[in-house]
């Protein structure tokens, strides 16, 4: 199973949100971080492999991928504009990506934050920069979550 760079996956999310624009908002950095978390978690559960290699950390406002956060922090709480074309995943990965986006893309940024704060991977990891939510913890949680 191919692994991608988190910035490529992030841009795919941003491109999809901008293209669809069916949720009334471009994706903010806060919402993007949570969508990356769900993409990674379900990918680990379904394929037993990460979608991207970069770590997800348990920050105060929920899961964050520092590399992606730092790239998009200039947008503040505004929507992120896509850059270039979105990557194309394998058919299986595209299918999972679409399912996750269709479910979690409907949530607001704060709604996703609240959701992640109720889930074991974030709740059981000390909060703060540098505190990584392990792949194993995410995989275990998402394997036991509602099947998508």
Share of residues in helices: 40-55%
The main pleated sheet reads as: 2 strands, antiparallel
Q: In sequence order, what are the helices and strands, one letter per element?
A: HHEEHHHHH
Any idea what the radius of gyration is?
A: 14 Å
| SSE class | mainly alpha
Sum up the overall morphology in one term.
globular
Report the average pLDDT across residues.
93
Q: Count of DSSP E strands? A: 2
- How many structural domains? 1
β-sheet strand percentage? under 5%
What features would you describe in this structure?
The protein has 7 helices and 2 strands, in the order ααββααααα. It has helices at residues 6-20, 29-47, 66-72, 91-104, 109-117, 120-123, 135-143, and strands at residues 57-59, 62-64. α2 packs across α4 (91-104). With 148 residues, it is mainly α. The chain has one domain. Helices cover 52% and strands 4% of the residues. It has a two-stranded antiparallel ribbon.
What is the compact description of this entry?
The chain is mainly alpha-helical and 148 residues long.
Secondary-structure map with pairings?
Elements: H1 6-20, H2 29-47, E1 57-59, E2 62-64, H3 66-72, H4 91-104, H5 109-117, H6 120-123, H7 135-143
